[in-house]
Amino acid sequence: MRPRHAYDDVRRAQEFRAYVAGAGGRLLHTATLLTAEPRDANPRAQRLLTLALARTYAYWDRLHGEDPYDHTRRYLMTRFALSTLRYGARLPFRPPPGGPLAELSPQERLILVMRLHEGIGEDQTAALLGLPVERVRAVQNRAMAVVLRPAPKPAQLMGRAGTVPS
To answer: How many CB atoms lie within 10 A of CB 101?
Structure first.
């Protein structure tokens, strides 16, 4: 390897390390929201983020002024969407109960994360997912209704005479 290429590789690695140090936390949070895993136990989100960062590193020299965060985020969401399409209803992973997004379908989580957490517009979300804008709006509204639904009151959970219904 010629010295010039070695210097370019070192510079590239340093730039990428700085990028991951700055954006890694937010990207991991995004991946965790997508997978609906707990924040402290999120192996699927970490795997998803690792794949997205590896892809970004492979394309680092070809980004040419493009924001690496957008590139990583786009791949992260595309990879998540493809994995949910591949497995469909027989997802091998079920999110643990109790998280704010655990009750949502993968598509609902993806659209909510894109629209509300990442701030991507309806038109761009629809284009990235290959859906009509009206569909994105309907899925987002349905997901928001689930997330904002008030928790059931203890009296509603209890059956007659204080017993729990079976």
So the answer is: 21
